[in-house]
């Protein structure tokens, strides 16, 4: 399988996504579709701060890739009418990298720190102080003669984003006044996003085509927008550019994204699990070998969605196909298939680190 095929339903942004995402991002909170609770809470935080004439509390956004964290960070700055500075955890390798950013912030600026869980440890300490006291301690010299010179910095609002809130040290998590927990989107929300994107792209999208694409988008706006563009490509080549249910189905069949959003790798994993291992339990690496993939690819790319869809269960003895998986693949489980006893008494296993 090529990278390209697998990337069709990956929640991570590829180059093509990055090129169009700017145009598709809602600019204001009222245009941000879904996540009602987060939107309402955030609106209160922002309005309260504006009424008091102060920078709002620091905000943490937690949730999987493609769910709208970067979009929300930009919206926060826009709603506050504040400048936005963007950096990310991996870009902060030393505390000096962070000091350079913090000491040049303007009053009220929004600092977006993406993938905040990947920031270097020594920088974390500096961030605690900056968040709490708007101060940076710059260490001058080395060894016993080293001194910390405190520098005041402008009051700012940190907006942190993470796909792994569990990896954040508690002292860092505690310094955020508000945490927005981003969830997967409902089908009707994805349909709304698709209709909005179609309007921006100048694409004629029929309602039932929007329903079809939404159903295959894994609850993720980024995937919905990507599938929309691929269906549009197909409609331009094979039809008059009009996105009907028929074109959507034909295009998504061609791209091998099935009616639940499963791609070829997902189905290969399910197929091997059922046909070769009678539905499991089977170890992840054995399963990966049987589909000709690296264990990590199966664990990070395919498995999380299969587990979330209720098609695969993780048990201490290995991966097991659920009754829903047998039904989805149109196969009949053998009478001694492992689901049932094998699953119900099993302790849940921690999901892997997708980063
Ligand atoms: N609530 C939403 N409403 C409309 N579009 C959205 C929403 N959330 C995400 N998107 C779209 O999905 C794409 C990915 O969102 P992004 O904010 O980059 O996700 P994240 O930073 O969480 O990975 C963006 O181009 C944006 O257009
Ligand atoms: Mg992002």
TrEMBL record:
Role summary: The RuvA-RuvB-RuvC complex processes Holliday junction (HJ) DNA during genetic recombination and DNA repair, while the RuvA-RuvB complex plays an important role in the rescue of blocked DNA replication forks via replication fork reversal (RFR). RuvA specifically binds to HJ cruciform DNA, conferring on it an open structure. The RuvB hexamer acts as an ATP-dependent pump, pulling dsDNA into and through the RuvAB complex. RuvB forms 2 homohexamers on either side of HJ DNA bound by 1 or 2 RuvA tetramers; 4 subunits per hexamer contact DNA at a time.
UniProt keyword annotations, A-Z: ATP-binding, Cytoplasm, DNA damage, DNA recombination, DNA repair, DNA-binding, Helicase, Hydrolase, Nucleotide-binding
Molecular function GO labels: ATP binding; ATP hydrolysis activity; four-way junction DNA binding; four-way junction helicase activity
Residues covered by region (Small ATPAse domain (RuvB-S)): 186-256
Gene: ruvB
Catalytic activity from the UniProt record: ATP + H2O = ADP + phosphate + H(+)
NCBIfam families reported in the protein's UniProt record: PRK00080.1, ruvB
Region span, Disordered: 1-20
Subunit structure: Homohexamer. Forms an RuvA(8)-RuvB(12)-Holliday junction (HJ) complex. HJ DNA is sandwiched between 2 RuvA tetramers; dsDNA enters through RuvA and exits via RuvB. An RuvB hexamer assembles on each DNA strand where it exits the tetramer. Each RuvB hexamer is contacted by two RuvA subunits (via domain III) on 2 adjacent RuvB subunits; this complex drives branch migration. In the full resolvosome a probable DNA-RuvA(4)-RuvB(12)-RuvC(2) complex forms which resolves the HJ.
Domain statement: Has 3 domains, the large (RuvB-L) and small ATPase (RuvB-S) domains and the C-terminal head (RuvB-H) domain. The head domain binds DNA, while the ATPase domains jointly bind ATP, ADP or are empty depending on the state of the subunit in the translocation cycle. During a single DNA translocation step the structure of each domain remains the same, but their relative positions change.
Residues at which DNA binds: 314, 319
Domain AAA+ ATPase, chain residue ranges per copy: 55-188
Top-tier EC class: hydrolase
Region (Head domain (RuvB-H)): 259-355
Organism this protein belongs to: Nocardiopsis gilva YIM 90087
Sites where the protein binds Mg(2+): 70
Keyword DNA repair: yes
Gene Ontology biological-process entries: DNA recombination; DNA repair
Family according to the record: Belongs to the RuvB family.
SUPFAM superfamilies: P-loop containing nucleoside triphosphate hydrolases, Winged helix' DNA-binding domain
Main localization of the protein described in the UniProt heading: cytoplasm
Keyword Hydrolase: yes
GO cellular component terms, semicolon-separated: cytoplasm; Holliday junction resolvase complex
Protein name, per record: Holliday junction branch migration complex subunit RuvB
Residues involved in ATP binding: 24-25, 66, 69-71, 132-134, 175, 185, 222
Location in or out of the cell: Cytoplasm
């Amino acid at each position: 399988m090529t990278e390209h095929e697998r990337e069709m339903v990956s929640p991570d942004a590829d180059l093509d996504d990055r090129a169009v995402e700017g145009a598709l991002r809602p600019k204001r909170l009222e245009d941000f579709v879904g996540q009602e609770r987060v939107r309402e809470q955030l609106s209160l935080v922002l309005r309260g701060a504006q009424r008091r004439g102060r920078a709002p509390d620091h905000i943490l956004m937690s949730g999987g890739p493609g769910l709208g964290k970067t979009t929300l960070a930009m919206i926060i700055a826009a709603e506050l009418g504040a400048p936005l500075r963007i950096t990310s955890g991996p870009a902060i390798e030393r505390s000096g990298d962070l000091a350079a950013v913090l000491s040049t912030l303007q009053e009220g600026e929004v600092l977006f720190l993406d993938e905040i869980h990947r920031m270097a440890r020594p920088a974390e300490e500096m961030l605690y102080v900056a968040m709490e006291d708007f101060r940076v301690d710059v260490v001058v010299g080395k060894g016993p003669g080293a001194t910390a010179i405190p520098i005041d910095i402008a009051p700012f609002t940190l907006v942190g984003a993470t796909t792994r809130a569990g990896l954040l040290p508690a002292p860092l998590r505690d310094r955020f006044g508000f945490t927005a927990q981003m969830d997967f989107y409902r089908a009707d929300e994805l349909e709304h996003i698709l209709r909005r994107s179609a309007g921006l792209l100048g694409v004629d999208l029929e309602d039932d085509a929007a329903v079809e694409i939404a159903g295959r988008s894994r609850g993720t706006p980024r995937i919905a927008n990507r599938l929309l563009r691929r269906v549009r490509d197909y409609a331009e080549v094979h039809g008059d550019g009009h996105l009907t249910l028929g074109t959507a189905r034909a295009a998504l069949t061609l791209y091998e994204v099935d009616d639940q959003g499963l791609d070829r790798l997902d189905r290969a994993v399910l197929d091997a699990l059922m046909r070769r291992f009678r539905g499991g339990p089977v170890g992840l690496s054995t399963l990966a070998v049987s589909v000709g993939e690296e264990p990590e690819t199966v664990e990070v790319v395919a498995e999380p969605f299969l587990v979330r869809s209720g098609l695969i269960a993780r048990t201490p003895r290995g991966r097991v196909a659920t009754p829903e998986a047998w039904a989805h693949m149109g196969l009949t489980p053998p009478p001694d298939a492992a689901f049932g006893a094998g699953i119900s008494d099993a302790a849940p296993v921690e999901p892997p680190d997708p980063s």
